[in-house]
Automatic annotation (TrEMBL):
The entry's keywords: Cell membrane, Membrane, Transmembrane, Transmembrane helix, Transport
Annotated signal peptide: none
Protein's name according to its UniProt entry: ABC-type nitrate/sulfonate/bicarbonate transport system permease component
Subcellular location: Cell membrane
Originating organism: Pseudochelatococcus contaminans
């Protein structure tokens, strides 16, 4: 009787020891993850600081570089301040953001839908495959004259160009992801009585999610690239239009401001996408 009671008294102690070990392990894991994140941020900031220092010193102490053609960051910053305070840069950012988001939204819907349909319906795949692959080889910049003729120099032509450029990465990655779903998943869903629509939304699309997220990330960057080309051809506002005006006025500092804004904007969009993807899909380890 005493032996049984002693064994029963050991069970809570073992559970407490297991709980303590689990809490210690989780705390250590969070601490290591936090330290790794801080170390990464520190190296990122250090890389930016070193780049700015080299950029500042190179045109000032190099006899073969003209400061007018390659202004240092201090001069670029002095030009940036009044443009920012006047609201010119913020307005250009707003206009460019609306254009890029509109074109990307159109491409997102059409690209994913086309990828799913062509992957699931073999007849449509064989019918549209040569056309889509042929159109995919046409750069969006080559369509600028046609878009201006068809849609004018307003917003529609720019949104159409951005949608064209972002459509094909979304289509091809979605197509590959849906096409290459493991047949075992489909057979298991069929054995459980799932219909075609249920299988599509609960089996096929989740299995193809890594490919779709990759396509979305590529399409975001392509949207910014095409945005620059679209705004440099007939726009009256936007970041690329501001850079074009700087080129006409021989103001390289204004052009550099546009480049820095575009690079910063692209970096922020990519980081936001990674953060949202990790929050919504924690099981998918998206690469940074």
């Amino acid at each position: 009787m005493s032996l049984a009671s002693s064994e029963q008294s050991l069970i809570p102690a073992e559970k407490q020891a297991t709980a303590d070990f689990e809490q210690t392990f989780k705390a250590d894991h969070r601490r290591r993850h936090r330290n790794a994140a801080l170390w990464r941020v520190a190296l990122n900031v250090l890389g930016i600081v070193l780049f700015v220092i080299v950029w500042e010193l190179t045109p000032r102490y190099s006899s073969w570089i003209n400061e007018v053609l390659f202004p240092p960051p201090s001069q670029v910053f002095r030009t940036f301040i009044p443009m920012f305070l006047s609201g010119e840069i913020l307005e250009n950012i707003r206009v460019s953001l609306v254009r890029a988001a509109s074109g990307f939204a159109v491409a997102l819907v059409l690209g994913i839908a086309a990828g799913v349909i062509t992957a699931r319906v073999k007849a449509l795949q064989y019918l549209a495959e040569p056309l889509l692959h042929g159109f995919r080889s046409i750069p969006a910049i080559a369509l600028i004259p046609l878009c201006i003729l068809w849609f004018g120099i307003g917003e529609v032509s720019k949104i159409a160009l951005i949608a064209w450029g972002a459509f094909f990465p979304l289509w091809i990655t979605t197509f590959i992801g849906v096409r290459d779903v493991n047949p075992i998943y489909l057979r298991s869903a069929a054995c459980l009585g799932a219909g075609r629509v249920t299988t599509l939304f609960l089996v096929v699309l989740p299995a193809a999610l890594p490919f779709i997220l990759t396509g979305i990330r590529q399409a975001l960057s392509i949207s910014l690239v095409v945005l620059v080309a679209a705004e440099m051809s007939g726009a009256s506002s936007g970041i690329a239009h501001m850079m074009s005006e700087g080129h006409q006025l021989f103001r390289v500092d204004i052009m550099f401001i546009g480049l820095v804004v575009l690079g910063t904007f692209g970096f922020i969009v990519d980081r936001l996408f990674v953060a949202v993807a990790r929050r919504l899909f924690p099981w998918y380890q998206i690469t940074s």
